[in-house]
UniProtKB/TrEMBL annotation:
Pfam families: Aminotran_3
Keyword Lyase: no
Molecular functions per Gene Ontology: transaminase activity
Protein name: alanine--glyoxylate transaminase
SUPFAM superfamilies registered for this protein in UniProt: PLP-dependent transferases
Record note on quaternary structure: Homotetramer.
EC number: 2.6.1.44
The family this protein is said to belong to: Belongs to the class-III pyridoxal-phosphate-dependent aminotransferase family.
Required cofactor(s): pyridoxal 5'-phosphate
Keywords: Aminotransferase, Antibiotic biosynthesis, Pyridoxal phosphate, Transferase
Organism: Amycolatopsis melonis
Length: 430
C-alpha cells in the first residue's frame, strides 16, 4: 500500500519535495499526541508536523469551534466584506504583540507572512537592501528563499532583494563559539556594524531573524543578542523583524513570543504554523505606520478567512485556558535535563527553550557534523514508536518539537526512547 503510494508520489510530485524515513509513512489517524499509520503502527509525536500541530490532534474544543463555523454554511465569503472573527483575532494578536499601535495582516503561510514583511520594510524604507542571519530559514517564496541563509534550502540563486548575512544564530559552528555570552554578543554586534558599513549603502530596510532558528537546527544565541543588535539597527534606522513562525504562542516556555527573551520589542513579527493547529493561517503584526505604508491596494483571497480565524481563536483560548506556556516550560525542562544527563560520544550539545529542543550530533571525539547518526536516529526512534525531526545546515541536528500539550508521562516515554535510540545509533555506527 505505502510502496504503491510512494511510487505515485515520486511520479507526480517534484523531486525536491523530500519525505522523512527510509520507508515514508502515511498517517491515517491521530488523537492527542499519538498518530497511527496505514500499517496500524502508532507513534508518539515529537515533531508536530514541524511545530504546526501545536495542540495535538482531535482536540474537542478546537474541532467544535470550527464545526460551528461550518454550520453557518460559510467556509469563506471574501476579505472584501467585514469578517467579525478576523477583526477580533487581529485585535487580540495586536494586543499580545506588545508592539505600540500594532496592526495585523493575515496570510495563509509563514512564507507569505515573511514576504509581506519584506515588502513592507523595503517599501517603508525605500531600499531593497536587507539583512538576515546566517543559517536562517524564512520560507519558500521567491523573496523568502532569498533571505534564507542555508544553501540546502535556497532553491533559487536569483534574488529580488540585496541580502547580507550576519552572525549570531548558530553559535555551535560560529567562529565566536568559545567566547563568553557577553563577548559573543559583542562579537556579533561588531559583525553587524561591519556588515552595515562594508556590505551595504547604509540605508538598509530591515534585519529579519528567528529568535531560535528552526530549520537551522533549533539553535539560539544568548539572551540579549537581539536587544544589543536593535540598538545598532535603531541608529541606522533599520527595522527589526522577528520571525515567530516557530517560536510564537508560548512554545519557548519563558515567554509568549521568542523574541521576548531578548528584552526587545521588534517593529514587526511574522507568525504561522502553531496558531492554526493544522489549519493554514499566518500573518504579520507590525507598527501601524509600517503596516499602513502601502499606497497601492493589497489583498489576500484566503488570508483571514473565517474557518482559519475561528480555529486560530480556539487555539489561543486553549493555550490560555490550559496554561500551555507553563506546560512548555515544565516539559522542556524535563526533556533538557533528561537528555543532558545522558552522555553520548555522538552528542555535542543539547540546547533549546521550552518545547524546541535541538541535539547536535557529531562524529565521536571531533566537532564534525554527523548527518549519518541523525538519519539513523530517525529510523531508530521510529522503530520504537516516536516521531522526531532533523535539520541544521549539515542535517546533523535532531529536532524535538512536540505538541505544546505534551504530558509529563509522554515526555518521559519520549526521553526513554531517545536515550535508547542514541545508544543503538552509536553502537551501530562505531
Ligand atoms: N519561517 C520559519 C521560521 C519557518 O520555520 C518556516 C517553515 N518551516 C517558514 C517561515 C515558512 O512557513 P511556511 O512553510 O508556512 O510557508
Amino acid at each position: 500500500m505505502t510502496d504503491e503510494l510512494l511510487a505515485r508520489h515520486r511520479a507526480v510530485m517534484p523531486s525536491w519535495m523530500s519525505l522523512l524515513y527510509e520507508e515514508p509513512i502515511e498517517i491515517v489517524h491521530a488523537h492527542d499526541r499519538r498518530m497511527t499509520d496505514s500499517q496500524g503502527r502508532t507513534y508518539l509525536d515529537f515533531f508536530a508536523g514541524v511545530l504546526t500541530n501545536s495542540m495535538g490532534y482531535d482536540v474537542a474544543e478546537i474541532g467544535d469551534a470550527i464545526r460551528k463555523q461550518l454550520d453557518t454554511g460559510i467556509l469563506h465569503t471574501s476579505t472584501l466584506y467585514l469578517i467579525r472573527s478576523q477583526v477580533e483575532l487581529a485585535e487580540r494578536i495586536a494586543k499580545l504583540s506588545g508592539i505600540p499601535d500594532a496592526k495585523v495582516f493575515f496570510t495563509n503561510s509563514g512564507s507569505e507572512a515573511n514576504d509581506t514583511a519584506l515588502m513592507l520594510a523595503t517599501q517603508y524604507r525605500r531600499s531593497n537592501q536587507v539583512l538576515a542571519m546566517r543559517n536562517s530559514y524564512h520560507g519558500r517564496s521567491f523573496g523568502t528563499v532569498a533571505i534564507t541563509g542555508n544553501r540546502g534550502w535556497s532553491a533559487s540563486s536569483l534574488s529580488p532583494v540585496k541580502v547580507s548575512y550576519v552572525h549570531g544564530g548558530y553559535r555551535y559552528r560560529s567562529p565566536f563559539r568559545d567566547l563568553s555570552d557577553a563577548d559573543y554578543i559583542k562579537a556579533c554586534v561588531a559583525d553587524l556594524v561591519d556588515i552595515l558599513e562594508t556590505a551595504t549603502a547604509g540605508d538598509v530596510a530591515c534585519l529579519i531573524a528567528e529568535p531560535i532558528q528552526g530549520v537551522g537546527g533549533f539553535s539560539l544565541p544568548p539572551d540579549g543578542l537581539f536587544r544589543a543588535m536593535k540598538e545598532v539597527l535603531d541608529e541606522y534606522g533599520v527595522l527589526f523583524v522577528s520571525d515567530e513562525v516557530q517560536t510564537g504562542w508560548g512554545r519557548t516556555g519563558e515567554h509568549f513570543w521568542g523574541i521576548e527573551s531578548h528584552g526587545v520589542t521588534p517593529d514587526m513579527m511574522t507568525f504561522a504554523k502553531g496558531l492554526g493547529n493544522g489549519l493554514a493561517v499566518g500573518g504579520v503584526v507590525a507598527r501601524g505606520d509600517v503596516l499602513d505604508c502601502f499606497e497601492a491596494q493589497s489583498f489576500s483571497t484566503f488570508g483571514g478567512n473565517p474557518v482559519a480565524m475561528t480555529g486560530a481563536t480556539a487555539v489561543l483560548d486553549y493555550i490560555k485556558d490550559h496554561d500551555l506556556q507553563a506546560n512548555c516550560a515544565a516539559r522542556g525542562e524535563q526533556l533538557l535535563t533528561g537528555l543532558r544527563a545522558y552522555e553520548s560520544p555522538i552528542v555535542a550539545e543539547v540546547r533549546g527553550k521550552g518545547l524546541m529542543i535541538g541535539v547536535e550530533l557529531i562524529k565521536p571525539g571531533t566537532t564534525e557534523p554527523n548527518p549519518k547518526a541523525a538519519a539513523r536516529m530517525l529510523e531508530e526512534t521510529k522503530k520504537r514508536g516516536l516521531l522526531i525531526g532533523k535539520g541544521g545546515l549539515h542535517s546533523n541536528v535532531l529536532r524535538l518539537g512536540p505538541p505544546m500539550t505534551l504530558t509529563e508521562e509522554e515526555a518521559q516515554e519520549g526521553l526513554e526512547i531517545l536515550v535508547d535510540a542514541l545508544a543503538a545509533t552509536h553502537a551501530a555506527l562505531s
